[in-house]
Task: inverse folding
């Protein structure tokens, strides 16, 4: 998950919104994955990774940059905004600046799929 270079703003807090019942739970198998950055941030705090890894620092910087002018992280459905904000604050508090996290995986550069060549 840390190797994924793209970040979608519209899914920031999707997992929290689904847990509190704002978003529907459509099942375990879906046609495409929604990568919720706050859920990845929660997993980072569980494994006690630190911001000394550049990929984690980029995720934390992206989440902080998405904060609104009133200090909230806005979600598409306003009822979930305060819960998303609470979850993000709690996870940002738990991200460590230094730990025993060993980063041996090289950073993979992101390249989009090449455009398909036209036959005619």
Result:
């Amino acid at each position: 998950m840390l190797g994924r270079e793209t970040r979608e703003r519209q899914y920031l807090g999707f997992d929290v919104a689904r847990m509190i019942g704002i978003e529907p739970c459509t099942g375990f198998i879906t046609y495409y994955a929604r990568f919720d950055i706050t859920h990845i941030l929660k997993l980072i705090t569980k494994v006690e990774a630190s911001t000394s890894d550049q990929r984690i620092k980029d995720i934390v910087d992206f989440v902080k940059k998405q904060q609104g002018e009133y200090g909230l992280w806005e979600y598409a459905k306003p009822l979930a905004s305060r819960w998303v904000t609470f979850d993000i604050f709690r996870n940002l508090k738990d991200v460590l600046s230094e730990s025993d996290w060993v980063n041996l995986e090289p950073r993979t550069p992101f390249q989009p799929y090449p455009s398909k060549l036209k036959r005619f």
User: Anything to note?
Assistant: The chain has four helices and no strands.
